[in-house]
Amino acid sequence: MTTAPTLPVTAGPPATPSRDTGRLRHGRRWDRAAVLFLLPSLLLAIGFLIVPMIAAFVYSAARIAPLSGRVTWVQLANYGAMFTDPTFYRALLNTALFIGLTVPLSMAVGLALAVLMNSVLPGRRIVRTIIYLPLVISGVAVGLIGTFLFNDTIGVFNGLATSLGLPNVSWQSRGLPAFISLVLITLWIRVGFTMIIYLAGLQAVPVELYEAAQVEGASGWQRFRFITFPLLGPSTFFLLIMNVIYSFQVFDTVFVLTNGGPGSATEVLGTYAYKTAFGPARDQGYGAAIGVVIFLLTLIFTVVQWRTNRNRDEVA
Amino acid sequence: MAFNRRQALLGGLGLGAAAGLSGCAGLTGKAGSPAPSSSGSGSALQAELTFVNWSGDQEKKAFDAVITAFEKANPGITIKTETVPYANVQTNLDSRFQAGSPPDLFRVSYIDIGQYTSEDVLLDVSGTFDQAKIDAFVPGLWEGVVYDGKPYGVPHQIDTTAILYRTDAFEAAGLTAPKSLDEAWSWEQFAEASTKLAGVVKGKQVPFIYDWQSAGAYRWLSWLFQAGGSLLGEDLKSPAIDSDQGRRAVEFTQSFFTKGWVARNSSVKSSTYPDSAFISGTVAMAFAGDFLIPGIEDGVGKKFEYASMPMPKDVQAATDLGGNAVVASAQGKNTEAAARFLEFLVTEEQQRTFCEATGELPTLKSLTAADLDFQVRPDLMKTFVEQATTLTPEQVKQVTVPQFAKINAALQEELEKAFLGGASAADTTAALATAVQKASA
Amino acid sequence: MAVTTARPVAAGRTTTGRPAPARRRRRSRAGLTVRIVLAVVTALVMAFPLWVMLTTAFSGQRTFDADVSVIPRRFSLDNFSRVFAAWPVGTWFGNSVVVSVITTVVTVVVSVLAGYAFAKLRFPFKTPLFLLLLATMMIPTQAILVPQFRIVNSLGLIGTFWAVIIPGAAATFGIFLARQFMLAIPNELMEAAELDGAGSLRIFWSIVLPLCKPLLAVLTLLALMYQWNDFLWPLIALKDPTLYTLPIGLQFLQGQYRTDYGALMAMTLIAVAPLVVLFLAFQRFFVQGLATTGIR
């Protein structure tokens, strides 16, 4: 299953309310029934997440023949090939660029929309629904709609541009516009999620703080900068991690909208991993190696982000 | 409120369950796996065969017709077709082979067949095809399914590229199309005509589109052959493309993009194919394979008139070899029945019916000389039939070597760089030569 | 003072406040107009792609010229009948339903059980296990495609729905949601039942679960959404076209129909409609589910 979008901010030792260590149940110190409760999910997680991830590390050191499935061990040859593979670097660069564009933009726009939706506004409910409706639409469907919107010759956007007398953009056949089309489509999907989280965060800000600031003579912008934004810290932290993970692992929309093209202009790590393993090259060992790289990069980023947040909280 | 929602949910689930009953096959896992056992030998064969292929609408109907005829002639054998998109066929086959349940039959293009023959997974059909039967095929085309001296399937059909053009565009540009192969335009005449067309197209239209997208990248080789060049040397392993002819071909085709004769989004890595471009009226000429004709005729309808003309020629006339073979897997459970189907598929009557319905070209000698009664636009098919005669056995050999799929992939990469990335002709041919060397290693 | 009128208003509550002085009122009306304009523009921009999909699907058009119109010119069901006639769309729809529903049920059951354990039960290695499950959420599908294929293959499941259902239920986000929710259930309720002599299972079944209706709703909807839209793994696991789910069918048709956007948009609408309907009916739960996880 594609990675889920939700990740609670609380991670750290889970709160164990009121059961003190002195209490005994049925004469035991821990609840034997826990085994029953945990077993199904543990088995599934081990069997289909943990073991495959370990196996991915293992397979990244192999070459697997396409038709027969025969495995030959090549140690670090796949990683060596990665170092000299221009497409890999391109995919890495594109992924970084993609993250660098979509994450800040979706968060900024999401925040702005949350502020907007939080204010007095007629028809607020409807607009909110329209904004987060794209979340439930599959990546493939979004990509398909995108191919129609961004088609060079018969696409909707270029058609509109022509009828307005504006120049046409080569959305499909030039690298930069293709990349932009991808970013735009991703923003369309993700902005709603950001807005939901920020809205919830905004509504948790105590009204008294604003009242006090207003009495002190703070302007709207000052109130936002010194009260709202800092108090949204946890939401921002959460969104940062979630959106970065999403953008690291993006696949469906890229695959359908541009398939990495033109050339490798929009090739990202996710699509490259798939292409090497299941495309014409059918090199499953190399594909596994790229998958390992994706995982490690995501992990490193999350850990770094976690540490930074922890320090920030301590300092604050 | 909650009551209504619950009702709606239940109703929805009910509907879904009804629709889902058809999906039960997926739960038991019976779908897709062939029933084992062919009881007894002799003419009363019992078997259920799976046939993996890709097909456009007309091809699907034509295949169904052949299968129905076969099943009638062989009661007891049933064939289940599984249509998979062309882009996914290879991975689909890979996972089936790895899972140990390969399909009994599958369709494979001549440029890809080498990957399977060299892995020893295909059924050797020399038992079913004696020399007399082999001689019935156009020499060189049979070679496409032969590996190491043994045949591994049947060449079912070929297709080739020629030019479709809009009569209104030619009129506006004051052009007269050549009517036969002898009158085919030279490269200079073609360039002249394209310039004239560029003057009359309006808005987003461009003079033409070429059919080198995606797996069709190798169709660029026509220009190489027209220039008198070669892809491989006589040993069919060493590269011969890094030559003056090679560079000339690259330069000429690069000029299509720099002069704006083709749209930038019709390069080798794009997903805009000639049929959709021609139908949507964005090109005046389309280099298209004959198999696209039924679809184009359907799509164009009454919008505009169009006709066909041969490919341009330089030192010689040349075109590309497209088309597919049908093969059987050696590890299938019903190899005898599968071989029988292969034999049936390429009998004169069946091949004739298939080609006439789909606008594809036959592989049997008796049919290439004959006048096939093509169902759709026989006037256009004449050009393609003629064009196909420019294929030489040497060219066929070059594009059906086992390593050709890798060479095709390299063609895609390097041509994209040449067309959209501004790479020089010399660099392109050099890179291609290196890739050919690597592939043949 | 400020242009934005007032304090942020929580959903459902109206602003309480003194009537603003005249100067502020004028400014606030200008502010309101600005906000309305912004909201309308946003709504139009966000709805545009879906509008295009709708109008194209029902336009009956098969080929598109360089001049495309976004105002619908005619209404026709041709695109739908064409797609349905040529391809087993109904089967694909049914497949999606079967796979999504079964996976959702399994996911919810498994997640609720595990969530309860992490929230309320004591057992050794609780923290390390929790962190391990946390880490699994970072595993990208692309990384485990190959090994997962080989594992599922060796179990003989490739080509059946179970190849999608079982790995699909391994999603760990449900466990976190469940745990989060159940942490808030007061322990006193459970302690009282214990004193009466009830066992863990009994407590779970009779006391805790009935309180979890909102959680179940949220979990079900979210799991359903992910399963319905899941594309990459099913693409590899289901090799038989009659077993395709809608996202795979959609991509399949992209290869077949290429620029026949009428057919493609019609098919997209079919693939998208059920979830949209579900979402519109149960918005509250979707949003709540996504939002809950963001708050400490």
Protein architecture, described:
The complex is a heterotrimer of chains A (316), B (441) and C (296). With 316 residues, chain A is mainly α. Helix content of chain A is 67%, strand content 2%. Chain A has a two-stranded antiparallel sheet with strand order 1-2. Chain B has 441 residues and is α/β, with parallel strands linked by helices. In chain B, strand 1, helix 3 and strand 2 form a beta-alpha-beta unit. In chain B, helix 10 packs across helix 18. The radius of gyration of chain B is 24 Å and the shape is globular. The relative contact order of chain B is 0.17. About 5% of the residues of chain B have low confidence. Chain C is mostly helical and 296 residues long. The N terminus of chain C is likely disordered. Chain C has 14 helices and no strands. The interface between A and C is large, with 135 and 132 residues.
Beta-strand percent range of chain C: under 5%
End-to-end gap of chain C: 33 Å
Number of helices of chain C: 14
Largest interface between protein chains, with number of residues from each side = A-C, 135 and 132 residues
Runs of chain C with pLDDT <50, length 5+? 1-20
Could you say what the CATH topology of the largest domain in chain C is called?
MetI-like fold
Q: If you consult CATH, what is the topology of chain A?
A: MetI-like fold
Overall morphology of chain C: globular
Radius of gyration of chain C: 25 Å
Classification by helices and strands of chain C:
mainly alpha
CATH architecture of chain A: Orthogonal Bundle
Supply the CATH class of the largest domain in chain C: Mainly Alpha
Secondary-structure element series of chain A: HEEHHHHHHHHHHHH
| Count of beta strands of chain A | 2
The main pleated sheet of chain C reads as:
none
- Topology, number of strands of chain C: 0
What percent of residues of chain C adopt helix (DSSP H or I)? 55-70%
